[in-house]
Design a protein that fits this description.
Helices cover 72% and strands 1% of the residues of chain A. Chain A is an all-alpha fold. Chain A is globular and about 60 Å long. Chain B has five helices and no strands. The two termini of chain B are 46 Å apart. Classes of the chains: A mainly alpha, B mainly alpha.
Chain lengths: 495, 168
């Protein structure tokens, strides 16, 4: 295995492979920086070029692109409060307040170091586990996957700190909205009102942009303020790097969590950052500052987000089960190069698999270096007054929203959701639980349905289900305790 | 007062929406029904609890709670009136509605004359009238965005919404 890894590494260092990897990295960086664009769009751009390419070269380009979107999507999340992609939604919670406090550059650099470390740890973990990951993945049936979806939902309590009832209502609304469109089990279209646009449900990018982008834009316009309310950026360019080093264990454990959640097929990449945020907050000391610009909230999420990309390779390559749209297109790309995803990826095609792992590691390092170089210039965006910056954002986000399904409904939904989200922001209704509920509705319903049809109620007694149930219960109890502690602190403060 | 009216109104609206979704779900086939029905029913129950809590807090004259985890959590500052004092809530709502009207007008313009043309018009008008940029800067910005949309859209194979006039 180690000899194969060395050979794959040497193969990847050939100039033509590095050149195509750099092309992928640059496309990936652009996809991350432009809000609403995703790794899937990048794959769509690059896919036509890989036809007939040598597998290692084509894979270097595709993986190079996919690996770095999770790094560069931090720019809009931190600097503008707009999710760069679905895997950087939770980064906003602490990254944007840090930018508002004039510490955008620190947040960005901490996030880049965490992303790079997460990507490398994830790659190495996948390298160490790929040989025996097959039985682990096969041990996870629909009941266990349903419990993992419930674990994600239990984070709603943590995300609605200070307003648990409003947060849970928000989460339930998200779950209900997630059921719009075709039912998973039968031929029924739900809540579509005969609109073709709603047959596939509300697109996630449109919901995320509406929930987070439009309210921020309106607030910036209303107050004609720059994102950064104070200028406290220091000449210390390594403050963020030191933050990441100081919280090295958080980086490490978040990377492992991200990799493991990435390996689990069917949960979806956009849930990983929310689960990681909840776990980071609950397991951190002095966590009252989370949501107000705590660097740990950025570091944990970003480390897990890049590590997850490595994890998703396991089900994608070993079973041909794509964990996301991006990995689904990766399977398509492999087919174009004459490779079939499946057990052969760890036998006859092992060199291709290992070259993917190496590309992940190298692309993460290259992307971090590039993002570091760009962060100083791009973070000056936070000093531009709202009424100059926002008109450009309005144009870009309208274009981005429309690319989701290329239907007028995208723009209408973006505006409608945006107005409701702006109201939610003004009246202190938590918005993240709505997104978590929405994201988890489809997997939760699908796996619950399969579990019930296959096992009746017997699945409730499966050992792993019971273990995961206990974890969910602990998270719920923890968030109740945290909420009541938080409320007491606030009351004491008021007195 | 406006804060609590909006908060209670929002709570009531969400409960009504969830209740209507629950009622609609009752008409679905059994396998398509149970999940949305459960989510909507739980949402109605919790939503009513949240609504009752808000009414009690409003009646007891509670202050607005600002320490919530709703992404930014910070009440915007640096308004036009003062660098330090936040704008009054009613004024915030009024100004935001005004700018929302700008954005809606931009979308209506896209529907009428197409995305690239309306983006140019929107930027020219907004940057000149609201941002008070000079004529030269305004024109440079608008032209730059149009060129960016044209070339980036071509490279990325982006699609533009259909318009009545048929322009892009």
């Amino acid at each position: 295995m180690f000899q194969a890894a060395t050979e794959a590494f040497a193969l990847l260092l050939a100039p033509e492979h590095l050149l195509f990897m750099m092309l992928g990295v640059i496309v990936g960086l652009i996809m991350g920086v432009v809000p609403g664009m995703s790794g899937m769009t990048g794959m769509a751009i690059l896919l036509p070029f890989v036809f007939g390419m040598e597998p290692v070269t084509g894979v270097a380009m595709l993986i190079g692109m996919a690996a770095v979107t999770s790094t560069s999507d931090t720019f809009p999340s931190v600097l503008l409060g707009i999710p760069g992609s679905s895997s950087s939604q939770a980064t906003i919670l602490d990254g944007y307040p840090l930018a508002q406090q004039g510490q955008g550059q620190r947040a960005l650099r901490a996030s880049f170091v965490a992303s790079m470390s997460g990507g490398i740890i994830g790659g190495l973990t996948v390298f160490g586990t790929i040989a025996f990951a097959r039985p682990i993945v096969l041990a996870l049936g629909s009941p266990e996957l349903f419990m993992l979806a419930l674990l994600g939902l239990s984070m709603v309590g943590i995300l609605s700190r200070g307003a648990p009832l409003a947060g849970m209502t928000s989460g339930m609304l998200g779950l209900a909205l997630g059921t719009v469109g075709a039912a998973p089990a039968v031929h029924t279209y739900r809540f579509t009102f005969d609109s073709i646009y709603l047959y596939d449900g509300i697109p996630l990018p449109v919901l995320a942009l509406g929930l987070f982008a439009l309210p921020e834009m309106l607030d910036l316009l209303t107050h004609n303020a720059a994102v950064s309310k104070t200028v406290v950026e220091t000449a210390d360019k390594f403050a963020g790097v030191r933050d990441a080093i100081r919280h090295k264990w958080l980086v490490f454990r978040s990377a492992i969590l991200g990799t493991v959640l990435g390996i689990v097929p069917g949960i979806g990449g956009s849930v990983v950052d929310w689960i990681t945020y909840g776990v980071t907050q609950q397991t951190s000391k002095n966590n009252q500052t989370f949501g107000h610009g705590d660097i740990r909230g950025v570091i944990g999420v970003e480390s897990a987000s890049n590590a997850k990309d490595a994890g998703t390779l396991v089900p994608t390559l070993l079973f041909g089960i794509p964990g996301s749209g991006t990995t689904a297109m990766l399977i398509g790309g492999l087919t174009l190069m004459g490779i079939q995803a499946g057990p052969s990826m760890v036998t006859t095609e092992l060199n291709v698999t290992l070259s993917m792992v190496w590309t992940l590691v190298i692309a993460n390092v290259v992307a971090t270096a590039l993002c570091f170089g760009l962060s100083g210039t791009i973070s000056r965006m936070t000093e531009i007054p709202g009424r100059i910056l926002v008109p450009f954002l309005v144009v870009i986000l309208t274009v981005a929203a429309y690319q989701s399904t290329r239907h007028w409904g995208d723009i209408v939904a973006f505006l409608g959701i945006g107005v409701v989200a702006w109201l939610m922001k003004q009246i202190d209704w938590p918005r993240p639980p709505l997104l978590v509920g929405f994201v988890l509705a489809v997997p939760a319903e699908r796996y619950l349905h399969i579990s019930m049809s296959r096992y009746g109620f017997d699945w409730l007694t499966f050992p792993l289900v019971l273990a995961l149930g206990a974890v969910v219960l602990l998270v719920v109890i923890g968030s109740v305790v945290q909420n009541s502690r938080h409320r007491r602190t606030l009351e004491r403060g008021e007195r | 007062m406006l804060y609590w009216s909006l908060r209670i109104g929002m709570g009531a609206l969400v409960v009504v929406i969830l209740a209507l979704m629950g009622l609609e779900a009752r008409g679905f086939q059994a396998l398509a029904r149970y999940f949305p029905l459960t989510a909507a029913s739980l949402g109605v129950v919790i939503g009513l609890g949240s609504l009752a809590q808000d009414v009690v807090r409003w009646r007891s004259g509670a202050e607005r709670q600002t320490d919530l985890l709703s992404t930014t959590a910070v009440i915007p500052e640096a308004g036009e009136a003062s660098e330090d004092e936040p704008l009054p809530f009613a004024q915030t709502v009024k100004i935001s509605a005004y700018y929302m009207a700008w954005i809606i007008a931009y979308v209506v313009a896209i529907w009428l004359i197409g995305l690239i043309a309306s983006s140019a018009v929107f930027l020219l008008l907004f940057l000149r009238l609201e941002a008070r940029l000079s004529y030269t800067r305004t024109v440079i910005c608008a032209v730059a965005v149009v060129l960016f949309l044209y070339y980036f859209g071509g490279f990325m194979d982006l699609h533009w919404p259909d318009s009545i006039v048929g322009l892009e």
